[in-house]
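Worked Example 4.2. Consider the chain below.
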Amino acid sequence: MSMAVIASFRDLTVWQKSITLAEGAYALAASLPGKEQLELASQMRRSASSVPANIAEGHNGRSRRAYANHVAIALGSLAEFESHVELAVRLGLVDPAAALPILARAGEVNRMLHALARRLKAPPLA
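Applying the procedure from the previous section yields the following structure tokens:
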């Protein structure tokens, strides 16, 4: 079995899926009523875009420890985003059916980030 070469953060599946999640977050945020565009929509965009940004920054860092820290920050931003989506649903600003696909994508990214965090905490391969 050959391993794919990771030359850039863009080669990471978790980054690719998180950038797609951020795109979806922008679309969902744009669907919020005008009065929420400066508040909840802004928070949704900021937290969602922070996930791939932290993966990229961590990947380009100088140490596994720093990378693991950025992955932890990405996980926090992801939880923040999911909370904003849940709040939008509970407030009746987003149809629950419209939120399900993006929350499913967020769950997938969450699992991948946890797996990456575990790999970064493990001893390096020889």
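The helical segments are 13-30, 40-59, 64-90, 96-121. Residues 13-120 form a domain with the de novo design (two linked rop proteins) fold (CATH 1.20.1440.60). Compare this with Example 4.1 before moving on.
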